């Protein structure tokens, strides 16, 4: 009896040729650049959050309209955004560093790790995008109901 192989089984021994290596090396360089810019952006967000917190605390009065007083609300928001931003940027950086290592040392384990990190990067971005679309939809519905409630 003749054995039939799935077309997907041929990919188990997928090889990376010279051109693919060059593409991956260039991708790793750009990913490193973008992740470093991302880390700088996170650092700036944290500095701004601390600055707003300090300035807000020094200028807050008992009649402050901010729910937490001064710039605490804005600072907490910036810290949360920086925390969410850190996760995909860190995955991107780990992808780049593992890919560079894999290409330099011809290490299959580093190559696999780099692909795992880029998968995690895009998975996080995808889930975050779905959550943000959901929040936008809820906000639109809330505004529609609020507008409808006022017109009555």
From TrEMBL:
Top-level division of the source organism's lineage: Bacteria
Transmembrane segments: 30-53, 65-87, 124-148
Pfam families: DUF5362
Keywords per UniProt: Membrane, Transmembrane, Transmembrane helix
InterPro entries listed in its UniProt record: DUF5362 (IPR035287)
Protein name: DUF5362 domain-containing protein
């Amino acid at each position: 009896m003749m054995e039939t192989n799935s077309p997907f089984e041929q990919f188990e021994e997928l090889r990376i040729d010279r051109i693919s290596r060059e593409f991956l090396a260039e991708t790793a360089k750009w990913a490193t650049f973008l992740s470093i810019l991302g880390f700088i952006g996170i650092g700036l967000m944290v500095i701004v959050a601390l600055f707003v917190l300090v300035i807000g605390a020094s200028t807050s009065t008992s009649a402050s309209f901010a729910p937490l007083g001064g710039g605490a609300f804005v600072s907490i928001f910036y810290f949360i955004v920086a925390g969410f931003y850190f996760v995909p940027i860190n995955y991107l950086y780990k992808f780049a560093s593992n890919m560079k290592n894999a290409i330099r040392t011809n290490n299959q384990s580093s190559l696999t790790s780099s692909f795992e990190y880029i998968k995690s990067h895009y998975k996080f971005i995808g889930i975050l995008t779905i959550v943000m679309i959901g929040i936008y939809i809820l906000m639109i519905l809330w505004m529609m109901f609020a507008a409808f409630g006022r017109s009555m």
